[in-house]
Amino acid sequence: MQHISDPNHIRLGMIGMTEGNGHPYSWSAMFNKFDRERMPKECPFPVIPVYLAREDYDTMGIPGAKVEYIYCNDRRNAEHVAALSLVPNVVDRPEEMIGKVDAVIIATDIGSEHIERARPFIQAGLPLFIDKPLCDNRADLEYFTGLFESGYPLLSSSSLRYCKEIRPYYHGATRELGELRLIQYGMPKKWETYGIHTLEAVYPIVGPGFYSVRNTGSARRNIVHIKHKSGVDLLLTGIYDQAGPIPLIITGNSQNAVIYTHDSYNSFRDQLVAFIHFLRTGERPFPWQETVELMKLLIGGIESREQGGKEILI
User: Fold this and answer.
1) Is the entire prediction scored with pTM above 0.90?
2) Other CB atoms closer than 10 Å to residue 225's CB: what's the count?
3) From CA 131, how far away is CA 167, in angstroms rounded?
4) DSSP per position, 8-21
5) How far apart (Å, rounded) are the C-alpha atoms in residues 192 and 37?
6) What are phi and psi of 268, to 5 degrees?
7) pLDDT tens track for 2-18
């Protein structure tokens, strides 16, 4: 990993944004705080100022790290993020950050774009956090796996992995439910961008060992059946205009659990804290192989749908 010149003052670059994804506003604010007058009035993503306002402004921030530079495809977007989330520098090209930051957060959620967005930073050896999903096709997954195998410092995850309402059920902590039979969860919008939220939320409940994925839906109505080696079935949906909140339902042969998630702020923040810890220590918050298996499930869901609901083996 590239040496961080001062672990107590980590300089970050933020890359955004894509349609419907306001992470550059919220994630930058989690590091830098925000303009308390302008953010509620001007943020184009109304939910962001709502959950930011619930937090104690005086204690907000992630110690020892700041977003110092921001780039968006449209400079006007970057300037607006900078003003609302107190980012001191805007650049016209991502490459302008190189030499001025210690690591980069690619806060965009179109997997097919991530190699191109990451390329200049990879060439410079800068550590990367890439927003979910890391990728959406097999060739790109092979490329990123090659980077990992070469020792490149790269993390990617969904914030749902860090959701405090689901974490009590992680890593086999479902004994009170008996033997698991079925897990159901859903997200609105596209499977390509939001399917990873459902996948990564449930992955630590059952652990590795997925067998196959079958998507019998359509581009706007994804109905995804996943089989796990333990015998539990997963039914995950990606219905474009489905209303929320959508509960996560864990069904056992003794009891069931119905879980609603609502603390977006701390899910996002804990994800970013894990990245900063990785930069300081080199310790991964979870094995890379989990990201690989998750991407295979996401990609398998796309391939199955395109092949008329064929079962895709993992």
Assistant:
1) yes
2) 17
3) 20
4) TSEEEEEE---TT-
5) 35
6) -65, -45
7) 568 788 899 999 999 88
